[in-house]
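Appendix B. Chain record.
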Amino acid sequence: MSKTALYRHYDANGVLLYIGIARSILQRTAQHEKNAAWAEEIARIDVEWHNSREAALQAEAVAITADRPFHNKSHNSQSPAACIVAKLGQKRIADTLGVGAAAVSVAVTRGKLPSAWLPIVRQMCAAEGIACPERAFGFKFPSPEHSDGPPLCEPKNCREPSE
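Structure tokens predicted for this chain:
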């Protein structure tokens, strides 16, 4: 395992611009300077080192969710999906589900976890005492005009039809 830095970029007024991870802060900052318009505002960089990339990824998700820097897109949402991933950890979820970390990241960016993940993620959340609302998952229900039968009920409100 190689050490990975969690870094925070601030402007001259102390406003948090961006949070990221990298093995080389100088190289990553140079990439920002080349590709990000906001990089010219960087006046200070704070760094904290983690023993592994996975630990840094988890710390990054928690930091972005908590601090909501303006220029971060990933994890920078109040969506229930982003909160679940920030609390459980992207790598942990990916490993438990047997998917790539990128799949988890894409789901967070979209704001919904795949509905097929619900049973496993719900178990993980329950074990940690974390809320796991169904709205964090991408359930799709046909609209009544496109249905051949009676309207479907939401999973949280499903009941057997009364006779």
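Further analysis of this model is presented in Appendix C.
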